[in-house]
Amino acid sequence: MDKYLVTALYHFVNIDQFKSFQRPILDFCKANDIKGTLLLAKEGINGTIAGLSDAITKFHHFIKSDPLFLGAFENIDHKESWASSNPFYRMKVKLKKEIVTLGITGISPKKNVGQYVDPLDWNNLISDPNTILVDTRNDYEYDIGTFKNAINPNTKTFREFPEYVKKNLGGQKNKKIAMFCTGGIRCEKATSLLLDEGFDEVYHLKGGILKYLENVPKEESLWEGECFVFDQRVSVKHGLAEGIYDQCYACRHPLNPDEINSSLYVKGESCPYCHDKLSPEKKASLHERQKQIELAKARGEQHIGREFDDSVTKKEFHEDS
Description:
The protein is α/β, with parallel strands linked by helices. Helices cover 28% and strands 21% of the residues. A hairpin with a 2-residue loop joins strand 2 (35-41) and strand 3.
């Protein structure tokens, strides 16, 4: 029976004092055995956490109602799914420049945002032949599942999306553009970008793919494949049931069972997508890491990294979620 409640959340809100929120949120989560990653920035909060149902309920009450947050998160959006074990190893609260990294100053859904489309209305919009449907996620996410007839921008990170828009959509500013992403945050910020660039009619899927898979029956669905998620489940299917994919630690590409059985797959070290792209130094580092994981497992322990990190690094998965 699935007993861990996984909650993906984000909220765009201007919070100058966001740094002061880091320690209280981390302490609350640790005290309630909640694990995952949350990002804090001046533009809001974003992340995914998991724990027992009562603990997650307490977290939502805390984040929405505690006077410490001055009402900043009272209208926070979140999606829920279940897992048989906690899909995270530790709890991290990180300070960032953006909660989803586009890399362009001044682009904000608080200033300008596209039209939200309810999951139950999404099929009608994307079935319209006059609608241009764009997947705002990255290439490895698109590879394992997307909506029928969706365009793949072939991006490695969300930072590349503005360049895709300029090169491929610039001449279609009077067309109907519909966009989607995993939980709603990337496509919401993407609509702000397009409107800022002068597009006329811009839509995005409210709650993202996760809310669509939760609410739209499989027999009525226009979703094809599985949806990549940024935790140990790797992917989910209709009804948010856990999918069939694993993931390569070296390059983070999702792997189906056939790819895992490939002679080019070495657990924790390489896969068919990256086996010939890694430097000797990187391979040695990954080999040593996997060795430490196996040694920790033999001792009945988990091999994990830091749980508290206030650095602004170039890539953390929730920046692109």
